Amino acid sequence: MTPGHFVSFILYQMEIGGYVQTLVELHMDLIESLESADKVFEYMDHKPSVLCGDLAPDQLKGHVMFKNISFSYSSSPDNKVLENVSFEMKPGSITALVGVSGGGKSTCVALLKHLYEPQSGEIFLDGRPLKEYEHKYFHQKVAVASQEPELFACSIQNNITYGLDSYSEDVLQTAVKQAHVNSFVHSLKEGYDTDVGERGGLLSVGQKQRIAIARALLRQPQVLILDEVTSSLDTESEKMIQTALACFTTQTTLIVAHRLKTIEGADQIIVIDKGMVSEKGTHMELMENKGIYYKLRESRFNEDNNETSQPSEK
Ligand SMILES: Nc1ncnc2c1ncn2[C@@H]1O[C@H](COP(=O)(O)OP(=O)(O)OP(=O)(O)O)[C@@H](O)[C@H]1O
């Protein structure tokens, strides 16, 4: 074999090797695609774990009642997350859920959002179990503004009106005013046309949360859930939300709060501890009780003061 033949032979082998490698890659891609398709079919076959009915009344007052709710997640059935939880939210009132981490506040919210069915007890909306309501109707009437709102890389206006085919200009104006979006948008050169960037990255946490609240209010829900919406707010946004809460009288509001100062004006504060309602009352009543709420407030007050008085580490 001449050196020329040898080189040709090696190149030929490499070409064959390339084909084999391509075939192997194609085979792997095919396996991955089949696995993905399996997941899609599995998802399509998945039966929803919550029940829905066809109830969709023209009028809804927004009266909420948790009655003897006990609940465990299916992934850890032995861990009773809520035990015999009962409380009532009157139409147009503000209820704050507070308590130490892991107490069960977010689980109460998840149950009110009807993401799960409790193992025992029932949640009622205007006297009817959640499971009797029509799915789309229920999610229009019960809206959530969460701690980490999903914002899209488009204008502030489009982020607020996202997903709505139509809306009234009046309602939009009321929503942005109530959520105190106006106050920061007016200082932006392009106002409501300002692009918020990928995942809203060009806005502060407080601004994002105010947009999330406006988005929820625009849907004119009868029940509004503010899920940990105040946990990482700057002082200005905290004050804004505190003022905004005072205007929330047309819907029933449930707020899960870390910043206890924000919810001082709530009609009732419910302390959830180890899955149970341990205290219930107004801010003044709970402060006089000198129980868990009082201690939480003291410790958070000290934490906040320490944070502001500590020199920041570089
Ligand atoms: N999806 C889940 N699957 C299994 N267990 C969960 C799930 N979510 C929460 N838990 C458990 O339920 C208990 C209550 O958690 P939950 O998040 O409701 O408390 P929380 O009071 O909202 O806490 P935090 O203030 O930290 O958000 C905890 O023991 C938690 O580990």
UniProtKB/TrEMBL annotation:
Superkingdom in the source lineage: Eukaryota
Signal sequence segment: none
Localization (cell): Membrane
Protein name as catalogued: ABC transporter domain-containing protein
PROSITE patterns in UniProt: ABC_TRANSPORTER_1 (PS00211), ABC_TRANSPORTER_2 (PS50893)
Organism: Cirrhinus molitorella (mud carp)
Main location as per UniProt: membrane
SMART domains named among the record's database cross-references: AAA
UniProt cross-references to Pfam families, sorted A to Z: ABC_tran (PF00005)
Gene3D superfamilies listed in its UniProt record: ABC transporter type 1, transmembrane domain, P-loop containing nucleotide triphosphate hydrolases
Keywords for this protein: ATP-binding, Membrane, Nucleotide-binding, Transmembrane, Transmembrane helix
Ranges for domain ABC transporter: 64-299
Membrane topology per record: Multi-pass membrane protein
InterPro entries xrefs: AAA+_ATPase, ABC1_TM_sf, ABC_transporter-like_ATP-bd, ABC_transporter-like_CS, P-loop_NTPase, Type_1_exporter
